[in-house]
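Task 17 of the worksheet. Students: predict the tertiary structure of the chain below and write it out as structure tokens. Keep your answer in the requested format; marks are given for formatting as well as content.
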Amino acid sequence: MYFGLSEEQSFFQDNIRKYLAEHATIDNIKHIASGDKKNLSTGIHQGLLNLGVNGLLIPEEFGGLGLDLLFAAVISEALGGGIGPTPFIGPYVMAPTAIKHAGNKTQQENFLSKIAINEYRFGVGFNEFIGKRNDAGITCSYKGLNGRAMFVLDTNDATHLLLADEKGQIFVVDTKSENIEIVKLTTVDKTRQYSEVICKNLEGELLENSADSVEPINQAIDAGRIMLAADSLGASQIMIDKAVDYAKERKQFGRAIGSFQAVKHMCAEMTADLEPCYAMVWHAAHCHDYSPDEARLMACHAKAHISEISKSIAKKATEVHGGMGFTDLLGLHYWFKRIGLNRQILGSPELVREEAYKSQL
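Model answer:
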């Protein structure tokens, strides 16, 4: 049985890669990371919207493309490889998934149709449902939403946020409300934005079907984990490619370092470790839509395993470059840091493996 990407999925991915190669150059990424050209990331994001990423998972009845999560996974892989400095996982994967499963028909029509035309852009704060830090967490009472959510995804230019309380109830809140404070967090990854959101008696609209079941929020979290795995997969492949290219060009003792056995082994090990990860991500994305009995287990496996593999590849690829690997000149650290943060967002490998175990009890 053949299991791989369709022509349409490969075509979509190639278009994203070509666009990022042209517009998200290392020089542009350096400007965006330093904050001296903020409109660059906005322009790159607009180009991706023109390619249709915002309507990817939205049903056709609400103005979207009605595609499955595997399409989103190949795009996330391309964004990881191209260190795309643009929102994707929050507004165009987790938010539509949460709204489709948690919203009633009226809420679906209202929110999904506006995501499809880019009138609404959602940030997503579900980390406290997975495992809250210290005094973080959102509580819901008759006064509204109170507390704080950490590492909320894709809050840059967001019009609304999806926030979850400790019970897994999902609320839609307006970022323009006077009772909300959004504080940008400084992370090692300068290509994407994460924020702390503080709520004080904040009015939120409950997505109706999340009140009785944690299934909707689990669906959204699983989708996000698969996207993070795919992003790390794409970033890891580029780090291998750059390590191999460097090993062919860099010379020591009159020979290319790629001819040294130790370097050969490092490059071969990275490639051998990463190759099975493609099938794992694709299968996890396929299960999410078509095999619900396996979906949670595969999402957890993909996130945990690829987090570990990509961490190892990031380390080895940097070592192949020697001292140059740590310099800003090559920019290798952008992929390195992106992989590092992907490992922790929506659950560390240890936490995710524990969830995988519990899902089989």
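Marker's comment: The radius of gyration is 20 Å. The chain has three domains: 7-116, 122-210, 215-359.
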